Amino acid sequence: QEALSFVALLDGYYRLTADAHHYFCTEVAPPRLLEDLENLCHGPISSEFAIAKLKRAGKQPGLYLLRRSPQDFDSFLLTVCAQVRLAPSLPLPPTLPLPPAGDWAVGTPWLPCWTRSGQELRRCLIRRDEEGSFWLAGLARRFGSLQELLGTYRHRGLQAEGARMRLAACCPPLPRGEGAGRGDPTSLLPPPRLQGESLAQGSFTQIFKGLRRQQQELGHCHSQVVLKVLDLSHRNCTESFLEAASTMSQLSHKHLVLLHGVSLGKETIMVQEYVRYGPLDLYLKKNQGEGKVTTSWKLQVAKQLAYALNYL
């Protein structure tokens, strides 16, 4: 029992820092991870990441990606590439900017994502009840498993957001191979490209804006992140630093900053989601006298804070 506990500890740490889909043996693997791998389902990745993954995979009509909902781990989101016909005189809708308050955490509207090639990415919500039955939101028919649900609609076709489409091919999660450690596909970019603009000085960390590199099936993906670098003078805080990261990795909510992971090497770095406007308290202090912070804006932010606190 002690040996299994030790292996489970190492396995969980490796999933946190290196490969989210890795497990040493079924005896220590989380049941949810085994379920996701069986169903070719991604974890609670963001909508932006899912869309980018489909685009890199070719975005052919019928290509789909299944992922867990970041807000409710017992619900699933199905994103499908669909071919649509646009009238020649109908311009593509512009990208709608998020209001400032929405930038405290990334939330994706439940709307079609338009592309210039006449394709849309349609999204469907799949729910699961306490008895383990699955169904598409808005439809009454229940299924005993995700595979049964997807198999049925793969054969019959699917109606979503006013368009009919087919499920032709899955875009599955790809666990890292044995040789991936040498190339470190999900590692940070090496210095000096690693660290960019200095954002702040914490009590025992230096905070930078940086880039995170991830290797996907058809190349690399770069995304902006926040890097919290542990000061060398506070090396004695490393254990507490990693414990905080472990706790944060278990939290997933659209109004909480996402933890991408931890980089260990010459420096200990916590990698977090980049939030455009930074910490809320600093933003309020900076803009309180410029008329940018309206009453309606404050109410919107207060509502988001309430949702986040209720989740915690």
TrEMBL record:
<protein>
    <recommendedName>
        <fullName>Tyrosine-protein kinase</fullName>
        <ecNumber>2.7.10.2</ecNumber>
    </recommendedName>
</protein>
<dbReference type="Pfam" id="PF17887">
    <property type="entry name" value="Jak1_Phl"/>
</dbReference>
<dbReference type="Pfam" id="PF07714">
    <property type="entry name" value="PK_Tyr_Ser-Thr"/>
</dbReference>
<dbReference type="InterPro" id="IPR041381">
    <property type="entry name" value="JAK1-3/TYK2_PHL_dom"/>
</dbReference>
<keyword id="KW-0808">Transferase</keyword>
<feature type="domain" description="Protein kinase">
    <location>
        <begin position="193"/>
        <end position="312"/>
    </location>
</feature>
<dbReference type="InterPro" id="IPR036860">
    <property type="entry name" value="SH2_dom_sf"/>
</dbReference>
<dbReference type="GO" id="GO:0005829">
    <property type="term" value="C:cytosol"/>
</dbReference>
<dbReference type="InterPro" id="IPR000719">
    <property type="entry name" value="Prot_kinase_dom"/>
</dbReference>
<keyword id="KW-0067">ATP-binding</keyword>
<dbReference type="InterPro" id="IPR001245">
    <property type="entry name" value="Ser-Thr/Tyr_kinase_cat_dom"/>
</dbReference>
<keyword id="KW-0829">Tyrosine-protein kinase</keyword>
<feature type="domain" description="FERM">
    <location>
        <begin position="1"/>
        <end position="21"/>
    </location>
</feature>
<keyword id="KW-0727">SH2 domain</keyword>
<keyword id="KW-0547">Nucleotide-binding</keyword>
<dbReference type="GO" id="GO:0004715">
    <property type="term" value="F:non-membrane spanning protein tyrosine kinase activity"/>
</dbReference>
<dbReference type="GO" id="GO:0007259">
    <property type="term" value="P:cell surface receptor signaling pathway via JAK-STAT"/>
</dbReference>
<dbReference type="GO" id="GO:0035556">
    <property type="term" value="P:intracellular signal transduction"/>
</dbReference>
<comment type="similarity">
    <text>Belongs to the protein kinase superfamily. Tyr protein kinase family.</text>
</comment>
<dbReference type="GO" id="GO:0019221">
    <property type="term" value="P:cytokine-mediated signaling pathway"/>
</dbReference>
<dbReference type="InterPro" id="IPR011009">
    <property type="entry name" value="Kinase-like_dom_sf"/>
</dbReference>
<dbReference type="GO" id="GO:0005131">
    <property type="term" value="F:growth hormone receptor binding"/>
</dbReference>
<keyword id="KW-0418">Kinase</keyword>
<dbReference type="GO" id="GO:0060397">
    <property type="term" value="P:growth hormone receptor signaling pathway via JAK-STAT"/>
</dbReference>
<dbReference type="InterPro" id="IPR051286">
    <property type="entry name" value="JAK"/>
</dbReference>
<dbReference type="GO" id="GO:0005524">
    <property type="term" value="F:ATP binding"/>
</dbReference>
<dbReference type="InterPro" id="IPR000980">
    <property type="entry name" value="SH2"/>
</dbReference>
<dbReference type="GO" id="GO:0030154">
    <property type="term" value="P:cell differentiation"/>
</dbReference>
<feature type="domain" description="SH2">
    <location>
        <begin position="40"/>
        <end position="169"/>
    </location>
</feature>
<dbReference type="InterPro" id="IPR000299">
    <property type="entry name" value="FERM_domain"/>
</dbReference>
<dbReference type="Pfam" id="PF21990">
    <property type="entry name" value="SH2_1"/>
</dbReference>
